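Hello again,

I reread your note about wanting to compare the complex against the isolated chains. To keep things tidy I'm splitting this into two emails, and this first one only covers the full assembly. Below are the input lines as submitted, including protein chains and any nucleic acid or small-molecule components. They are followed by the predicted structure of everything together. The single-chain runs will come separately.
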Amino acid sequence: MKRKKDFAPFISSLAAIVCGLIIGFIILILSNPTEAVAGFVTILTGSLTHGTKGVGQVLYYATPLILCGLSVGFAFKTGLFNIGGSGQFLMGAFGAVVIGLTCPQLGPFQWVVGLLFAILLGAIWGAIPGILKAYFNVNEVITCIMLNYVSLFWVNMTVKGSKVLFNALRNESKDIPKVATLPKLGFDVIFDGSSVNSGIIIAILVAILLYIILEKTTFGYELKACGLNKNASKYAGINENRSIVYSMVIAGAIAGLAGGIMLLSGTGRHIEIKDVIPSEGFNGISVALLGVSNPIGVIFSGLFIAYLTAGGFYLQLFHFSKEIIDIIVAVIIYFSAFALIIKKFLERYNEKKKDKEYNLIGNKGA
Amino acid sequence: MDLLYFLIQQTLLFMIPLLIVALGGMFSERAGVVNIALEGIMVMGAFTSIFFINLTQGFMSGNGQLLIAILIAAATGIVFSLFHAIASVNLKADQTISGTALNMFAPAFAIFIARIIQTVQQIEFKNTFRIVEVPILSKIPIIGEMLFKNSYITTYIGILILILSSLVLYKTKFGLRLRACGENPHAANTAGIKVELIQYAGVLISGALAGIGGLVFVVPTSTNFNATVSGYGFLAVAVLIFGQWKPKYILFASFFFGFMKALSNSYASIPFLFALNIQSNIYKMIPYIATILVLIFTSKKSAAPRASGIPFDKMKR
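Full-complex prediction:
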C-alpha cells in the first residue's frame, strides 16, 4: 500500500508536465502550423542532437536551477514560501564577485572563500524574512519581494560605486580572473565546448545533504513538523520560531551559493547594472514545485527544466523564440498548483481502497 | 515653484498606475484572494492595448484612441485574471503559486507573440496623448499648474477609479459583501452570500484595473513596450500593504512611492538634492524598505483581510 502512495506526487508532477507540453504544442501550432511539429521535436530532443556539448549545457543550466529549487523547496518543507530566492542569489553573486576580484592572495582557495562568502550573504538575506516572520509575524512572501528589490538596487549601487568591481565600458561587474573560478574537474574535456563545471557536483551534494537533514535528523524532523502543523509541533516542545529562522537561513544560504557558483563559473556571467531582478530565484519556484520539494526530486526536475531550456536554445533555427520554454514552464507551474488536488484525490482514492480492504479483511496492516 | 510643479507632474506619472493597480489588488484581497499576479496582468494589459495603438496609429490618434486602448487593457486583464480566479476560487489551489505562474507566463507570452507577428519584441507606438493644457481648469492657481498642464487623461481616470472604488467598497451592498468574504467567508456564506461569486468579482475587478494600470504605466514613460512593467506590479502590492488595504491610505502610499520614484529619476536636475549627492538607487530603495518597516510596526494589529490567501472551502468550518 505504502508504495502506491509514494507515487502520488510523481504522477501529479507528470500530469502537470504533460499539460504544459500539450499547451506549448498548441501555441506552436496556432502561431506557425508548418513548423510546429519540427519546433516541438526540437524542444523535446534538441539537447541530445548536439553530442556531448548539448548534455554538458543541460548540466550547466541545471546547476542554478537545482540549487534555487532546493532553496525554495527546503523553505516549503517548513511551510514557508521563499519567493526571495532571486535577491539571495544576487547577494551571493555579489559576495562571489567581491572575493573573486579583491582577494588574489588566497590562491587556490579563492573560489572556496568566494562561495563561502556567497553563502554567508545569502544566509543573511534569507534570515531577514525568517526573523520578521518568526518574531514580528510579517508575511515572508511580502518581505521577500521587497528584499529582492532592495538587494537589486543595493548591489547595483555598490558595484557601480566601486572602481575595483565595476567595468564602466560594459556597465557590469569586471571579469573574474580564471584562477578564481571553479575547477572544471575534467568536465570541459568530457563535454567539449560546453560550460559545465564542478558546480553541478556541488548542487547534487547539497541536494543529498538536505535529503539527509530532512529525513534522518531530529533537526530536519522538527522543521518538517512545523511545516505540517504549527500548533502540534509547538505542543510537542519544538521551538517554532527558531525553526522558521533556521529554515529561511538555510534556504537563503543555498540560493546565495547558486549565485556564487554562477558568477565563479568563468562563463562570462557578470552582475549587469540594470533594474532587472535575476530570474533564477523565480525559476527555482517552478523546479521546487515540480520536484514536490523533495531534494532528490528537485535534482530531476531541475535537470528536466534545464533540458527544455537547452532544447529551446536551438529553436532559433525556426521562427520561434525561446520564450516558448518559459510559457511551457509557467503552464506547468500553473497546473502543479492544482497538482495538490490531484495528489489529494489520489490519496483519498488510495485511502478508500484501503478502507475497503480493511472492511474485507478486517486487518489494517494488510 | 516651477521645480515643484515639475516634480508633482513627474510624481503623477508614476503614482497613477500604482494607485490603479493597488486598488485592483485591494478588491481581490478584500474578497479573500491574494493576487500577486498583478505584475503579469499589467504586462498582458499593456501588451494587447499597446499592440492596438501600434496597429491603429495610421488612422487614429489622441485621447479617443487611448480610451479604446484602456478598454482593451481592462478586457485583457479580466480574461487573464480569470485563470487566477479559476485556480484560486474553483480549484482551491495555492494562490501564491497560481500568481507566480501567471507572472512568469505574461512576459514570455508577450515576447513570443510579438516576435511571431512583427519579428522584433519591442512594440513601438506614437505618443499622441499628452494634454498640454486643459482649458479653463489650468487657469486655477497652483492646482491648475500641477494637475491640468502636461497631463494625461489617465491621471483623471485614475482619480475617478479611486473615488469609485471607495464608494463601491464602503457604500454599496456589493462592497459590504466583498469585505465580509475577506474577513470571514464562512459567516458570509451562512448569511446567504455566494462567496465564490463575490471572490470571482473581486479577482476580475483586480484584473481589469491591473490591465489598465499596465497601459497607464507604459504610455507616458516610454515610446515602446518591451514585455515588462519594471516590477510595478510588485510595487503595487507594496503600496496595497503600505496603504493598509484602505483606499485613502492607498492614495497616500502611492503618492509617497511615486514621489520617491520621481526623485530618483530627476534628482540630478534639482540643485539642492544634487548637492546632497545621494545616489538614485537610494531613492529607488526607500519605498521597499519603508514597506518592510511599516509591516514590522503594524504587524501586531494587522489590517490585512483575515481570510486573505486561504481557499474558501464550504466543508471546513
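For quick reference: Chain A has a mean pLDDT of 88.

B.
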